[in-house]
Fold this sequence. Notes:
This protein is of the alpha/beta class.
Amino acid sequence: MASSLPLELVLITHGQLETIRLLNQLSQQDFEALDGVEWDGIDDDELDEALLLSGLSLHDLLKQYNTTFLIQKLVSTGHKERGPYNIDFPKSFAYFEAALGWPPDLFRHEISRTTFDKLVEVLERNPIFQSRGRKPQRAVRYQLATFLLRYASRGSDTLSVAKRMGIGVGTVWLYCRRVTRALRELGLEVITWGDEDRHRETADHVCERTGFPDCIGMIDCTLIRLTDVPSMWGEVYYCRKKYPAVNVQGVCDHKLRFISFEMGWPGSTPDVTVLKNSDLWRNRTKYFTGDQYLFADRGYQSSPYLLRPFTEPEVDAFAGPERRRRLDFNRTLSGTRIYIEHAFGLLKGRFHSLKDLGRHRNVNEIYQVIHALMVLHNLCIDWEDSPHDFIDPDVLEEMTEDEGEPVEVITFGEVHYGDGHIAPYETDEWHKEEGRMKRDEMLNRRFPLSAYV
């Protein structure tokens, strides 16, 4: 009977539905108290799944799945027995067990087999994967595999992953939430601004490549497209390209590792607005020392902390030698600034869900997933996991199109920085003038006019 039903119909048992109803009636304090209770005869994963589902109202649950739920009333046989979680999804991990036996060159769950094994070893230390009941959780390698399968594909569909792994859709949510949380905790050590030694390593690389000293990274934003418009303030998520998205800022080093990021902004937010509200900008004196700065594109305003190319009007205002050296300056800077585009291209090329991120419970969960994938991106680079095999040329083309867009008219001085450490003299005009002087100094040092006459 189960095999004749469409796979889009998800089955939950009558007993499970009643449990969800009861849990929804508990106060928040009572609900949190359930977290440490031992439950006889209940698998730890199944308990966590029930708690996860109970966090949603029945209305939200139906809306989240966007599908039809069937309630199966159990046949009375003298004892209670849980029914299957999903139609036509046998409790089997045969697919993944087979994948574990594949040779390294065929095992490509978006990361190499070596990276997978290392990551399992690291994640196993996290208490979130320790059982709270008498029955153990499913092994970490299965939970990680579920996470990778979900976020490897556009749309991050839970139903297809559930079918492939032979588990319930709610269990897919549960495993992904655990892995997401564990990766984000690793991120406290994996995505860091770095010390002076790391900055000097990046600066030396950039200087050798471009002749520009003291650059410690490259900055840009990227749009993460969403398959569904968020229910709250949905219109602000539509970007200039007319699709719903969130705008994520990143700073990378010469190895394409992310050393800083900023999230929480809808797709309609200009890149410069994301920057000037970021912790990086509000506390820039803490992050930049001496003459340090970042490479940026023309979408950002001039500043001593950002070195950007000359705009077309700034180039076209001159002819002859001055024009030629400004064009050479732009080509040299852009040839290394593109590292941040490569970093985002690698991130999206490895985890295709970031091209169309599917439905999640709320926007915060979307940001948490993006953060977790950025952490995994850095780990793969640290563990030398063939990064260039995954760079997505479509992402590079999309980001390069933004290079020629006009400079945003929003100024640095329009935001209240809160607790940020900003010197009073750092006005918008000060940034423009100091940034212009710094760029002219770089131009004259690297491309002296005498060499063009």
